[in-house]
């Protein structure tokens, strides 16, 4: 289960980090290269016989095809071609080191899934167009990652930065700390993944390294076994927009979040946070639009004010929190004016599916009508009058806008309604006329029965059996109303 989930997160991360739309080579691509073979023959480089040269996508795919790097001659032949391939994939090749690469206009270099344990200083200095570098799933250690690894081209007196490098993936390596100057040659980095490296703590050196990344927009720090973050870690990268903290060991919300003023998207999935209440509520993060906290195996309560300070929140995803039983009526609202009205975030999508919720009060959100997605499926809902708003208004509304999300919203209580679709309970109320006619039939039957019973009662009373007669009547009535109730809801 955990592995599957991890893969989903990785996939999601990969998609987030792949704006150029490059996917693994599949059959259609192979086919395309076959049909392109006439064009390929015009390419004199023999690299295209070893690897797949996909001219349309400007990609050379050498994944699982090499035992070593290109030779000098092969690079030369590539440099002499009229076209420049913007993307080169060299994944799954058992490469152990990265040499100084020759001048080439490659923009996206994929070196993931090798055995790379060392990188020559200045390895990328001649790749001045390099924008995206994927070094994930290798054997890189903190020692191997020296600042000069990312040294740029030498001009006159000094090394220039690798100014085009925007995206760096260091995920799934053996790193536990970053050199404090690691990013000195790549100051324009916008996306960084440190995912699945066992840091355990963000030490001062790592914090200093990150503080230098003033252009950073996306930071993936998932599965790093972190329990806490330094309070000031986001003081440097102040334009950070997306932060992924999935699969760490946070028991409370990191205080550091209050420094990430420009954060738009936050993912806190799979952390052992037990509740959001008291001091442990979200600080003012006025730019935050997207918050995801799913697979939180310990969370049972979301208290008052938990999300009140997230004034711009539009998407809240709290799915698959199996213990989540209590969501406070004031979790989202905020008393700003001190008057009669409360303020609410402008929610557009709310996911509460696969939790342990029984009721959803009307006051939880004010503008239910503004929600385009409301997912309440797979919860043990209580089909009782105090939950009337959800049953009679929300679920029929969900049915009319997103019918898929209206099925599998089922009652768990009371027992006689257990397993019944809430939508069916709601539609039962359309047929009020039917149920009132049943009541009338009931009354008529009761009256008809009452005449002989009364006569008999008088007879019994006279004989001193009054109590018995009364009890029997009550039992009859209970039985009657029970059947009519069941009939109404089991159609
Ligand atoms: C890499 O090494 C593994 C095991 O040593 C081997 O099975 C695999 O074929 C190698 N890959 C390549 C591209 O040579
Ligand atoms: C990289 O470029 C420098 C000049 O900028 C050159 O001296 C060096 O030989 C090049 N390295 C390779 C491996 O081509
Ligand atoms: C809230 O969202 C709106 C619309 O997306 C945006 O114009 C506004 O600047 C945001 N507020 C803050 C504090 O970021
Ligand atoms: C779900 O909530 C009920 C009370 O409504 C509680 O008895 C039960 O233990 C909860 N289940 C989990 C998995 O927390
Ligand atoms: C907001 O707070 C004020 C004063 O604390 C209180 O009088 C008012 O009733 C509150 N409004 C709501 C809607 O709770
Ligand atoms: C749910 O919506 C469908 C149309 O999408 C409608 O036919 C059906 O009657 C609705 N069910 C109820 C119970 O309102």
Structural notes for this entry:
- This protein has 491 residues and is α/β, with parallel strands linked by helices.
- It has a domain at 43-161: Ribonuclease Inhibitor (Leucine-rich repeat, LRR (right-handed beta-alpha superhelix)).
- Helices cover 26% and strands 12% of the residues.
- The chain has ten helices and 23 strands.
- It has helices at residues 2-16, 27-35, 37-40, 47-50, 72-80, 204-211, 388-401, 422-428, 432-463, 466-489, and strands at residues 52-54, 59-61, 87-89, 97-98, 108-110, 118-119, 132-134, 154-155, 158-159, 167-169, 191-193, 218-220, 242-244, 265-267, 275-276, 290-292, 301-302, 315-317, 326-327, 349-351, 373-375, 381-382, 411-413.
- It has a 14-stranded mixed beta sheet. The chain has a three-stranded parallel beta sheet with strand order 15-17-19, with no helix packed on it. A two-stranded parallel ribbon has the order 4-6.
- Strand 2 (59-61), helix 5 (72-80) and strand 3 (87-89) form a beta-alpha-beta unit.
- The longest helix is centred in the last third of the chain and has 32 residues, at 432-463.
- The radius of gyration is 32 Å and the shape is elongated.
- Residues 1-41, 429-445 and 457-491 have low confidence and may be disordered.
- One 2-acetamido-2-deoxy-beta-D-glucopyranose is lined by residues 396, 399-400, 403, 423, 427.
- Residues 1-25 form the signal peptide.
- It comes from Drosophila hydei (Fruit fly).
- Keywords: Leucine-rich repeat, Membrane, Repeat, Signal, Transmembrane, Transmembrane helix.
